[in-house]
Amino acid sequence: MSSPNWPSRTNDNLIHFFVSAVQKVHATGNATEHSYRSAFEALFSGLGVMALNEPKRVKCGAPDFLISKDSIVIGHVEAKDLHISIRGMKDSNKSQQNRYKAALPNLIYTNGLDWDFYRDGSIIASVTIADFLENVIPKMDRYDTLENLLRDFIAQRPQTITMPRELAERMAGKANLIKDVLHRTLADCEVPETELTAQYQAFKENLIHDITLEDFADIYAETIAYGMFAARLHDTTLDTFSRQEALELLPKSNPFLRSLFTYVAGHGLDDRIAWIIDDLADVFFACDVAKLMESFGKLTGQNDPFLHFYETFLAAYNPSKRKARGVWYTPESVVNFIVRAVDEVLQNEFGLADGLANTSKVTIDWDTGQTDKKGKAVTIKKEVHRIQILDPATGTGTFLAEIIKQIAPRIQSVAPSMWSSYIEQDLIPRLHGFELLMASYAMCHMKLDMILTELGYKPTGNPTRLSVYLTNSLEEGEPVNQTLPRASLLLLDTFSQSFLILPLYNVPNEFAG
Q1: pLDDT tens for residues 421-430?
Q2: Which of 13, 40, 232, 328 lies 20 to 30 A from 391 at CA?
Q3: Residue 499 near residue 389, CB atoms below 8 Å
């Protein structure tokens, strides 16, 4: 249906013509929810903004209308059919409404006659401009109220986020919506081979063999949310931010995250997905993440807001996953004590004066992962560092970060010009971490990259890949694919003389035995 041919609009007739258009469509006797969309488009056009409706996007979980002005997204509108009550929703409609309220800070729910306005998840105003019995019966005395509420709605702009908890909750709301949109998009794929389905198949083949579409969407959403968080954290140009800029800001030492974001940042990203990721970018644009996390830069402090922020995010995004996977944290004072204790044991009991900073090497029989014609494992002689460090449940990398912090002063005080080469040749090659949760894994990479940068590390060439992998430490591993975060055979051959630093956390029931 073409847009209503409304006369020039004034404050007196804008809502009047909208109601008239709704009445006209209803009078045809065969109107559906979609039949009224041209009336909504004309209404918002009269307010000086654009109401964009994209059917494919809506089918995969987006609200009916994206409201924008000068290419800036202002808010969203979910429009139901006239006979559907927007209050007291149940079942799938209720679940959809909860997702939208959590993810979209400036939201309207309407059936054309009843209008509810939500700001940051809470309802701030309601108005009914007509009753619906057999016909639409206008309430003209409510027109001015709706006009004022709509003008207030389009006047909203992203608000500056000043508290870490608020940022975590905004991120969680967007991530849940990204998860829903991704799941619907994958399930609705009309073309069997797309870049997104290819990534799903790669995950199944290389990481989690029995992963479902829903679980893949969950992992993807978490990784996007934290990848963009890390990018904004590294961002020094606070007046701009986008998913394209995020790619340029991510640590270059993590090929997996950069590969994923090459797709997310691309111009060919599925439009059904792009809108909500752009919405997430707007959340980060509205805050100075580095300032929110500024306490993390005080490396000698006792609090790690970077770590606790992740805990807050996961509690808001998926608290049941946090409990099921045993996401509990060792206090920083305990981490510091354990690392110092291991360092002292190396010095006093093993005669290694440099302790954890020791760079001596040994030669071992290295399993190449191949077999000869008789089926016997092929090994080679290989020189490796004597002291290898593995955190088998590394989480966000607290133990590995503490080790770096304790080693740094020793090297920098003796040979400050050699610090960067020491990191690449004698530190990163012997620091290893395994993690089961995708978001924790991503966070660990970002955290270690942050701390190395703050301690003055400058890559001498191509950045060395951190040896932190996504895997289950209780399962046998597989050969490493450097574009995917999987551990290799638990690196057992490497640990000829190693010290395993075990974090203190609650063992989830599924792994207890």
Answers
A1: 999 999 999 9
A2: 232
A3: yes
